[in-house]
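Hi team, as promised in this morning's meeting, here are the two structures we talked about. I've kept the exact order from the run log so nobody has to guess. The first one is mostly here for context; it's the second one we should focus on when we meet again. Sequence first, then the predicted C-alpha cells.
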Amino acid sequence: MNTLANDKFDFDDEDTFTEEELADLESLSEEELDLDFDEDFEFEDIDLEDLDEEDWDEAYKEPVAGESSALAKSAEADLPSLQEEQALTDIEDALDISEGDMPESPVAESVENLSFADDDESSFTDDDERSPEEAPADVPSVEAAVSAAGLTADYYEDDVPQDGDHIPVPRINISVFCETQTVSELVEASAADRRLSKAHVTILMGGIKKAVQHFQHESTPNLLIIETINGGQELFDGLSSLAEVCDPSTKVIVIGSINDIRLYRDLMNKGISEYLIAPKTPVQVTRAIASLYVDPSAPPIGRSIVFVGARGGVGSSTICHNVAWAMAERHKSDTVILDLDLAFGTASLDFEQDPSQGLAEALAAPERLDDVLLDRLLQKCTERLSLFAAPNVLDHDYDLPASAFEEVLEMVRKGVPNLVVDLPHAWTSWTRHVLQNADEIVITATPDLSSFRNAKNLIESVKASRTNDAPPYLVLNQMGVPKRPEIPPEQFAEALEIEPTAVINWEPQLFGLAATNAEPIFESGGKSKAVAAVDRLAMLLLGMGGDKVYRNKINLKSLFRKL
C-alpha cells in the first residue's frame, strides 16, 4: 500500500477491510491505489475479479509463456522447507504426537529426558511394558511413519531411542585420544550422558602417537578410544606400536573419517572392538561405548582379586583394604571391596563406614540383585572406591550355599573393573569355591612356622585346581619383629617355589595410627617402605609392571581381542 493509503487507513500486515474502509478505498485514484501486497495480506468481501488489470502489481500478472511469475518463483523457493514441514507433520500424525510433546532436540531427548523402568520414580503402566509383538496393530512404528513422510533413515536412526538405551555403562575407565576439536567436544558431551555417569572419561589430544607415549608409564584403561586422520599402513603401524604398551584386555574403538568397508573388515579382523565413522552427535559415541558393555550374555568386565590369610591375624584384611585404596585413588581405577568375613569383617571400620545389612540381603536372595539394587547397597568411600561391607552381627547363621556367593560376585564384576575380595580365614565349600574361581589370589603370611605350613598347603591346593592359571602372589607381612625368631623370605621362596611379591616390615606405629584414624596407611605413612611395598603390589595387580604382566611382545590381535 502506498504512503497515502497507509496514512489514511493505518494498515498492518494482517489488517482486513471493513465496509466503511472499502467505500473510502473505492474513491482512491489509480496512483494512490498502487498496492504492494504482503504475503499475509487478506481481503474480506472483495471480489478480485472486479479489479482492473492495471491495479495488479507486476509480480501478480499472469506469466508469459515459458516464464514463471514472481509469486510462482517465490513458492518454488519455499518448496523444500514446505516439504520438510509437511514431512514432520506427517510423522506427528502417524505417531499421534501433539506439537507440545515433540522434543526440541532429538539428541537431547534421547540422552537426557527419557525415563525407564529401572528408575524407581518412573510410573510405567502395563501398557508401557508390552513387547513389540503385543503392541496394537494400528500403532505405526517410527520407521513406518518416517517412510510415509518421505524421509530417509538417517533422520532418526541416531536420535530415536533404541533397545538398551536405558542400561548404564558400568564403572569403567575410558581414555580418549583425539586428533580434532570436533571429536573432542562430541566425546565431552557424550561423557555427560546419564548412561556414562558411572564411567570415568579422560580426554587427551594427540591421537595414536600421544596414546603410545602416555601408556609407556601408565596402566591402560578398560576402554581406549582413538581418533585417527590416517588410513592404510600408517594406521596399522600406529596400532602395532600401541599394542606393545597396552594390556590384552583393553577394548579399542577407532574413530576415523574413511568410509571403506575393506578398512572396517581389516580392523575387525585385527580385533578392534568398533570402528566409528565421523560421528555427528554425542548419541553415536555413547551408543558405540554402551554396545560393548550392555550385552547381558557378555562375560563380566571386572577381575576378582581374592586376599586370604595363611592364618588368622597375619594382616590380610589390612593389606587387602590398603591395596584396594591404592588401586582406586593412587592409580585411578574403580574398585569395590567385598568383605566376606560376614560376622567379624573390619572393612567398615577401616573406612569409617557404618555396618550394613546389604551384603547379607544380597546373599540371602541373589536372584534379586541387579544394577539398581547393587548401587543402593554399595557404600561409597571415595569417588572411585566402594564398599560392600559385612553386617558384623552374630544373631544370624551364615551357612550359605556356594552358588549364592558366586552369583553376587558375578553381578558385582559386571559393573566394576576391580573386585577386591576380603576372604575370611576359614575353609568351607564357599570359601574354597571363591578362592578357586578368582582371577588373582594374594596369600598373606607372617614369617612363622604355622603361616609357613598353611601357605604351603594353600598354594598346593590352588595349583591343583588351577593348572592353567598363574601362581598366587605371596606377601610376607610383619617382618623384622624385634627379638622374634623368623623364617627368612629365601626359605619361603625355596620351599613354596614362589618368590615373595612383597615383603612388608613390622611398623606398628604406622599401621596402628592408620587403624585408629580409620584411614589408609598412604595418608599416615608418607614415604614408608611399607607404603611403597603396598603400592607396588597394587600396581602389579593392575598390570602396571612385573613378571606376571603380559605387556611386551604381544601381537595386535591378542591385544585387542574381545572379552
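And here is the second protein, the one for discussion:
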Amino acid sequence: MNNRTLRLALGLAAIVPAAAAHAQASPDWSLLERSRTNTPKPTSTAITVEDLKTRLFLFADDSMRGRMLGDRGNVMGTSYIAAELKRLGIEPAGDNGTYFQLVPVVDRALDESKPISLGGQTFVPWKDYLPRDNGAGERSTDGVSVVYGGIWGDAATMLPRGQADGKVVILTTTPDETGAGLPGLPNRQLATAYFHGSNGILIVGMANVPKEAIEVYRQPTGGMKDESPPAMPAYIYISDAMARASLGADPATLSPGAVGKPFAGRAVWKETPIANPARNVIGIIRGSDPVLKNEYVAIGAHNDHVGIDPTPLPHDSVYVVNHLYRVQGADDAPPRLNTADAERVNTLLAEIRKKTNGASARMDSVYNGADDDGSGSMGVLEMAEYFAGQRTRPKRSLLFVWHVGEEEGLYGSQWFTDHPTVPRDAIVTQLNMDMIGRGDASDVTGVTKDGAKIHGSPNYLQLIGSRRLSTELGDLVEKVNKDKSHNMTLDYSLDANGHPQNIYCRSDHYEYARYGIPVTFFTTGGHADYHQLTDEPQYIDYPHMLRVVSFIKDVAAAVADLPRRPVVDKPKPDPKGACQQ
C-alpha cells in the first residue's frame, strides 16, 4: 500500500525522557523463531497454502532487493510473474505481444547547479532549503508575492483561508508540531489543504530536519515523464536566514499578512532515465461467452515495494520496538522511548536472542514487502493459475494486471488506465488485492474515523470502495461471502468518507475508479511490520491469506458471470481531479 511518508531507520538510540509509550498486548515473540526459508514445491491448479508459501517466499526473498521501482530487484520480480503466466498458457496483454507494459518513469532530482537567490544572497539546497517534492505539478514561486502566514496551528495568529491564494506563504511553527514524524514541522497534508490556493508553502524549520531525513530527501525520486498532475503549491522547508531575506525581517516581529519581497526563484528539477525499466505485467484469460468475452473483470495487485535501507539494523530490535510501540508501522510516527521502555526492549531482546542462539539479531536492510504487496501479487498469480486450469471458464474475460510503482505514486495503474491495452470501457469491475496476508487479533489493522484502534480476527477482511460507484457490486460481494460460506468478517471502517488514513486513495483501485469503473479493494489491513524491514514471508498468516484469495476468486467469477455489468449508480469522479475519500 502506498505511503509517501518519509522512511527513516529506527535505532534504539532514540531514547528520550518522556512519558511511557502506549503498548498493545504482548505479541507472540515466538514468531521470531520461525524459519526464513521454505522448500519450493510445484504449484497446482487448486489455491493452497503450500502454493501461496512457495510463491511468496520466492517473490519476497532478500534476493529480490525489496522490488523497488527502477531497481533490478523489481525486474526480477516482474520477470518471475511473466514466466509463470507463460508457463500457464495465459495470453499476454502487454506491449507488442509481450506480458510487459512499459511505464515511462524517470528519476527526478533537484538541480543543485541552480540554487535559489534572494536579495543578493544565494541559498544552498539541503542546507538552507529542502523541497519536499520532485517538481511535478508544483506551481511556480518565481516572481510571486510573499506573505507571512503566521504560526501554523495557532488559530489566533494564522492568516485566514484564501488570503494566501496566488502567493507564496511563509509559516513559522511551534515545537510540539510533529508532521511526518518530524518535531517542529507541521502536518504537510493539513497545511496544503489550508493553503491549497497558494503558489508555495515555505515552512521556517530547516533546523528541525534531521540529517538522516535530509539524506533521504536528497535521493532522486521517481516520476512520470512529462506528467502534469493537478496543480499544487510547492512545499519547502527553509532556514531562518532565507525567511528573513524573503520577508525583509525576522518573522517573529511580523503580524500575519505582512508582505515581503516578491520571491525571486524556484526549485529546478532535472529528469534522467531510471536504471531499470518500470513494467506492468498483464495477462488475459478469455471468457467463454461469445459476446461477454469482450468485457473484462480486472484483477490486480502491485509488484513493487520500497527497496533497501542504506543503514542495516538488527532485525529483532526493529521487530520488538515496532510491535510494542509502533503498532501501525509506517502509519505511526517513529517512537520516542524513555529509559523504562528501552529497558523493557533490551530485556525482551536478551530472552529472544537466547532462544534463537542470536540468529534473530541478524543485520537486516531489505524491505521484503511480503505482505505489501507480495501477498496480493502472489494471490493474483494463484487466481490466474486456478482459472487457467478450469475446464469451464467464466463468461467474461479475466484481465490480470500487476501494477508497478504503486509505492511511488500509483504510476503503473495510472499509466494502464490512461493507456489501457484493452478497451477501457470494456472493463466492468476492478478487484484490487493489497496486503492480504495478516489481520489477526494481535495486528492493529487501522483506526476508526474517531481514532479507535481496530484489531483483526481469523475471519477479518477490510473492504474499501465496494459501494462508492456501484451499490450492486457491494451487494454482490456480500452475497458471495454468504452464499459461498466464506463467512469473512467484513470491516468497512476505513471506507468512511473523510477518513484520515485515506485508504481509498492509496492503492491502485482508485486509478480505475476515477474513470467510473466500479472497484473493490480487499485488504487485511495494517500491522506493525507495514513498510518496515520486518515485513517478511515467515510472518504471513497463510491459512488466512488462503481464505481471502478464495473469497476474491469467487467474487471475480460471480462478476464475470453476471448477465449484465454492475450498474454504476453513484457519481463518477473527475479522471483528472484529485482523489477524495
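Starting points for discussion:
Residues 7-36+310-364 form one domain.
The chain is about 25% helix and 20% strand.
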